[in-house]
Design a protein that fits this description.
The chain has helices spanning 24-35, 148-151, and strands at 38-39, 45-48, 58-66, 69-76, 87-92, 95-96, 99-102, 105-109, 136-139, 167-168, 176-197, 208-215, 218-221, 237-255, 262-268. The protein is mainly beta.
Length: 269
């Protein structure tokens, strides 16, 4: 939740570059513990003391992880918005919990804490947060030397029009441009995530893209797993899967006939 954005009209309220993320964690806490009234404790029960008065018609706080359990808190004044009943409803692991009212607050039994076993995540071999060593990016064009190249592999997938964190083909007179990575050593790679920024004005999704790997000094196209052409979408993740290759260098060529291309992030797995 970004309090810098106008909730009714959209767009930023304050135009400083850091304002989009200012104080967002503290603000979320005010909503969760203040408005919704969740009061954490070390025990197996949870106290809930929401700030509900005549001005509040409804709110929904869903899938909050609490002691390993998924907690959903719903307030529906008339019961017509969420169809979960009038007033306050609590669901623990998708099951309605019994509320016990104690003075001005409610208590619900959560149960014993559940240990969540973390699952290993595949490594994004394109990531370079420190901008040193490998992966080493190069491109057919780079309007902001030494900055925008690394912004496409820094782990940040931002689509803010007023905060630029992306590599673009801005200034190119060609209808094709490429972005390449030297990974430093060979990796087994079978998919790519491409996050494209599109603003409907200067930048649009490319007409097409081609993924290649270097083999014996030549760029060779990967063999796509999907038989249909890739349908690219702006401002979200585009996952492209292909037959596994073992390569130290990868390249994506973007074909753009009318608009320039902006890439927020590229990932290889």
């Amino acid at each position: 939740m970004l309090e810098n954005y106008d909730p009714n009209l959209g767009g930023p309220i304050v135009y400083y570059y850091w304002s989009n993320h200012y104080n967002h964690s503290s603000y979320n806490n005010l909503v969760i513990s203040g408005l919704c009234g969740i009061r954490p404790s070390a025990g197996d029960t949870l106290d809930i003391n929401p700030l509900i008065d005549s001005t509040i018609d409804y709110f929904y706080l869903g899938n909050v992880m609490y002691h390993g359990h998924a907690l959903t808190l719903i307030f529906d004044k008339h019961g017509s918005r969420y169809k979960a009943g009038k007033g306050l409803s609590i669901f623990v692991d998708n099951k309605r919990a019994t509320l016990i009212k104690q003075q001005d607050r409610y208590r619900v039994s959560i149960g014993s804490p559940m240990k969540i076993t973390s699952t290993s995540q595949p490594r994004n071999v394109a990531l370079n947060v420190m901008r040193k060593g490998y992966p080493l990016p190069t491109a057919s064009i780079n309007g902001s030397p030494d900055t925008s190249l690394y912004q496409a592999i820094d782990g940040k997938t931002w689509y803010f029009p007023e905060i630029t964190n992306r590599w673009t083909t801005q200034g190119s007179t060609s209808k094709e441009d490429w972005f390449a990575l030297d990974l430093g050593k060979p990796y087994e790679i079978s998919s790519a995530n491409v996050f494209l920024f599109a603003d409907g004005n200067n930048y649009a999704v490319p007409d097409d893209l081609t993924i290649e790997y270097e083999h014996v000094g030549q760029w060779v196209p990967v063999k796509m797993q999907a038989s249909k052409p890739i349908k690219l979408i702006g401002n979200t993740k585009n996952t492209i899967q292909f037959e596994m290759v073992k390569a130290a260098k990868m390249r994506i060529t973007f074909r753009h006939e009318l608009k320039q291309v902006a890439v927020s992030e590229i990932e290889y797995f």
